[in-house]
Fold this sequence. Notes:
Order of helices and strands: H
Structural class: mainly alpha
Largest sheet: none
Oligomer: single chain
Amino acid sequence: MPDKNDGNDPSTDSNGQSLPKLPVPPTAPQENEVGKQPKCCANQEEGVTAKLQRDIKTGEIWLIVINALLLIANIVNASIYYGQLCQMKKATKAAEGANTIARDALIATNRPWI
């Protein structure tokens, strides 16, 4: 039975067997493309990086402008509130003066007649 091959053992006669034909992929890209592709990609990456930097710079400028406008708006609000505070102080002093006059008048009218 040593002459029979059941398929589990490899054949000892390698000359009689042929290798399977598989499609062979190209081993490497063209020589001209290898040199050009990294430069092309590097230029594209530099363009993307420059655009990203420009976008970030534009965004930062807009943030500075918006914050400056908010600062101006807060200064205007603070000046309005200060003006209101001054007017309330004047009104309080006037009310205190009117209260003093009214109290004196009440005391004078409630005096017993002599």
